[in-house]
Amino acid sequence: MAVQSWSDLLKSSKKTALIHDGKRKIHYLFTDGKEMAEEYDLTTDELTVRKWRSKSTFKGHGPWEIEVGEPVSSTVASLESDVIKENCSNPIFLRKDTKTSFQWRVRNLPYPKQVYNLSVEPDQRCCVIRTTNKKYYKKFNIPDLDRSQLPLDSSALSFTHVNNTLIVSYKKPKEILTLEHELLCEVKKLKGTNEGDVDCKTQ
Amino acid sequence: MAAQMATTKVPEVRDITRIERIGAHSHIRGLGLDDALEPRQVSQGMVGQLASRRAAGLILEMIKDGHIAGRAVLIAGQPGTGKTAIAMGIAQSLGPDTPFTAMAGSEIFSLEMSKTEALSQAFRKAIGVRIKEETEIIEGEVVEIQIDRPATGTGAKVGKLTLKTTEMETIYDLGSKMIESLSKERVQAGDVITIDKATGKISKLGRSFTRARDYDAMGAQTQFVQCPEGELQKRKEVVHTVSLHEIDVINSRTQGFLALFSGDTGEIKAEVREQINAKVSEWREEGKAEIIPGVLFIDEVHMLDMECFSFLNRALESDLSPVLIMATNRGITNIRGTNYQSPHGIPIDLLDRLLIIATSPYTEKETRQILKIRCEEEDVELSEEAHTVLTRIGQETSLRYAIQLISTAGLVCRKRRGTEVQVEDIKRVYSLFLDEARSSQYMKEYQDSFLFNETTLDTSKPMTV
To answer: What value of ipTM does the predicted structure carry?
Structure first.
């Protein structure tokens, strides 16, 4: 497949917008069958949720994969599961962006600040969180930068540790800021109704 | 309550060497060809039939290539000349990755399913689809397993499993199924395991090197491995191979996938098949799947009737068709379901589409070799003279009869506490069991004293099928 820029892909996708619960919800359907759903806060215009879903090789849809925002907790289902799942005392990794930076939060990390060690691995296009006590390790990429094919910069990365939470921030580069601004304007132009039931063109 | 896998009633998974029963063709391990496809006189359990083996080798190359669909091969020859053996040889050399479906011509006659449906299912069983998918696995070294039994003694057990890599450590909650399979696999602290997150399947990779100093009782097959690196959860690409038939059954909805195990699949609608063909070719274009055309082997093909033959004509033209190998021992005979005579009992239009491999009767030397191989397979020691006598029997009666005598003579020999089968043992079983020719002779002599001899068979009327 020829390299198609992310903004072109976004423009060519079918979009449906809806305002509900104080959030602007947008659903994108891409030409390859992938779906993306975003939620923006109405007052601050901050991105609160972005999730992806693609058709699996076998029949049917896979579950939503959350890129930004808190995972939906399904405590009822997990209690009855016969197999294996992470204990609730384990660190929880999630992404929560701000206007100017990508931000990740790792909750349930009780160790002091000097334990953590963050680095950028440009050849693998990912950031790595290491701990000197060998309790936590996480490799994550920044999908926004991958999609726009921008390089990773280690100077943009910083972290703090408060309330048992490690907060990792990566300053958004200029290109991303302009792209997001354009997208937001585009999205605001979409007609959204206040009612729950909308004719979803993308379905 | 940190009971470390205390004695439970769960059966353990033990390594045992598989004991295989000996079948008529279990001595065959391949076609016995060298790299240039030249047949060796005796190799991989095959003896003689050089020309037919070489021909089968060429067919094998064609199958492995996988580009040509819908070719059909007929192996024709007298009974007991190794037709099925050649087909088995092809199956063995194809290996486990290529689907090989074997059936007998009479298997398709069922009251529950039409003949053509049974044939279509057999065709689709012989085509494999290799599908690549990503799954999430957990790979790490076990630090601790903790299983809590409820105080009341009944109810579900709960457990915790701590896993680590060189970089991190995570605690997992275990469900009751998981606890059971962990104890089945006898997972202990220090083992390196992988868990498929979706299915919960556990596989033990070995013991961690850091535990290599614990010189406690360890089996000879204990392997030491490095503690995994990086993150505990990884995405890994796995490859499934399923047959088109299996996809059909899963998607036919009326029964659901359980029909795969009961075999009660019923008829599958043509629309379902069409949809699946379209889907599979779509996956192929997207690079998600790969089609592996296999082999459908129909033994005793003269048992098929006219309808089946005309169905085969059509089915072979589809581009999703496997290589069809058929075997028959008939000469010029009636085509089943008609009054027409045709070579091998197969209509001429189908014969025209076939490549025919002929097998010829074995020579004395070859018979001797085959008997020797069978003796090894059945673990029977044969003296030189007994071997000669048995070869003679094989030449004069049939090879199958001679092979039958091996195990019976072996038993007679063991009863008299001998170690090697002698001529007397062969003589003994030869007198005890009649071969086909002697049995017919006996019938002719004593026909009058058997039941129903008073009704004379009316041979003038042709038998209806």
So the answer is: 0.75
